[in-house]
Amino acid sequence: MKTNLPNNNLKQFLSIETLALIAIALGVILRIINLGSREFWYDEVLSLLLSTSKNSLYKTPGDLPVVLSQYTSLLNLPNEGSIRDFLLTIVDLIKSLLRGEPHPPIFFLSQHFWLRLFGNSEAGMRSLNTLFSIGAIAGSYGLGKFVLGHRGGLLFTALLALNPFYLFHSLNVRMYAPLVLWVILSTWALLHLIAQQNSDISPSRRSQLLWNGLLIISIAAGLMTFYLYAYWIIVLGVLVLYLDRRHWFQHGLRLGAGVLITTPWILWGTIKQLRNADLDRFGKAQSTSPPLLRHLQDLANTLGTDILIGDWATSLDPIVITLAGCLVILAFVSFSIHLWKQDEKRNLGIVLILGIVPILLALCVDIASKKFTLGFGFGRTMIIILPGCLLLIALWVEKAIAKQWRTLIASGLLLIYLTISIGDLSLRNRTVFRSIAELVAKDVNQPTLIAMNSKAWGHVNRLAYYIPTDSSVMLLSQTPAKLATSLEQVLKEKPEKYFRVLWLDSEYPLWSKLKTQAEVEIEQQKIQQILSSQFQLKATQNLAGTMNLDKFTAKLYTHSPGT
Q: What's the order of all strands across the beta sheet hosting 535-543?
């Protein structure tokens, strides 16, 4: 008698369920093994500075060199000898957030306590967000199963686990990874409560408390993590009107309870933090395109970055990002039409509300306010759309694709995500300031002056973090227009003080850029002449990371013989 057992085993191994489980495992593994594989980028080291509670002690470098290790001490927790000292540190942290940070406190408070447990290493700092992202992956199965069933839930979870954009932010010391967790939990809880409200079977009191508590806590946590989570509360309200308009008042009370918890901070802290928000930067023109066209481009760029290319957006030409976004838009329109024809109108409505309504809401606010927040930050301000958009993809595969093609298409989508994610983590250089530290370490005992044409505090603190404190290093951090003059004065007054000078020429010194390339070249020539008169050029290194902020030319000079 013939048997098909081998074929059956092969089909079972190649099932969507098995492929999804493998993808989920790979997503978790990629997060764990890459915790310390790349250096802190600009915003991450600022998160570290804020989390230590020493932000208020930071002073912008002046016209004279300073000991670099003074800044290194700001990236460590203060010395404490009592509970009173501990409480004073927390008070200082809150005050520093009120004075100089536009974001809510819960992310920085959680990082502060995590810092106490695991230190300020890259892996230690990133591990908390990685845990939040793994929690989001686990919660996504519950949400996906509720909407799509077991297999669809696994596919949705796998897409989230390997999504390049979310994988990057899972390893980023900023507030975006936990934001996705609060989005998933609040949506899952609300859908459960809507189902309970319309069920013929009365839910247990324990179940009601669980889902109500989860909804209220996740809403409060979301608002206290990122203020634009307010868009998501509106989305949840739209979802209520779509699915359970009869009981809108009960659901509204639940949503309102989550907001109410945050009211003390909103009335006290948020009003103060508004003074720290540089809202003018969202209105500055970054292209010559008409405003409406730019708004639409921001919409496409956000979708292309969040759904397809991830952090690669920081290195790609803007037109490539826009084309990726247009591809995503065409795919989503096609998916929606296909699902509509398959009579999946209810679920299609749910996923479109979760994935498309928030970005359209943000677009309308931008157009009305004449701001461009949607395109700011390479898509991260709209990371809340990610679960809904990935649910749309999973719904299309699960409900609109013929059975014989379903596994092939699902595996293809997961393979695309896996390839983009691994490429991002392995092919792109993220060791700029480690390379600078290696240059300094070549002769660590010799007095060294670092002359940098940037006062940007992210540049200063990254130098302080990566260059060992036992190095004899002074820092002259000056604007591009003044560095040559300051350097000449320093070397004239104390010509024998420094054995080496490391000139760091930033291509993007942030707020103090020179207006023309001609001005840049003139200042570079001045510095080169000043250094060549007393030193010999020993090494030149062009350094580039994944962003303009990471582009430096490092030139190491040592004393000429006989000088």
A: 66-67, 473-477, 448-452, 500-506, 552-559, 535-543
Q: What is the DSSP letter of 244?
A: -
Residue type, 240: V
Instruction: Write a three-state SS string for 52-87.
Output: CCCHHHCCCCCCCCEECHHHHHHHCCCCCCCHHHHH
Q: Can you tell me the distance from the alpha carbon of 189 to that of 139, in angstroms, rounded to the nearest whole number?
A: 10
DSSP state string for 342-371: TT-HHHHHHHHHHHTHHHHHHHHHHHHHT-
Alpha carbon distance 257, 518 (integer Å): 59
pLDDT tens-digit readout, 465-476: 999 988 899 999
Which contiguous run of DSSP H or E holds residue 535? Answer: strand 535-543
Cα–chain-centroid distance for residue 384? 12
- Burial group, residue 139, by CB count within 10 angstroms (0-12, 13-18, 19+): buried
pLDDT in tens, 63-86: 999 999 999 999 999 999 999 999
Whether residue 288 is predicted with pLDDT greater than 80 in this model: the reply is no
Closest CA to 27 of 548, 440, 414: 414
Paired residues of 505 in beta bridges: 553
Could you tell me if 162 and 414 are in contact, meaning their C-beta atoms sit under 8 angstroms apart? yes
Q: Which pTM value belongs to this model? A: 0.94
Give the list of residues 6+ apart from residue 391 with CB closer than 8 angstroms, or none: 143, 144, 147, 148, 156, 350, 351, 354, 355
State which amino acid sits at residue 184.
I
C-beta separation of 370 from 336 below 8 A: no
Residue listed under structure tokens 């980023």? 172
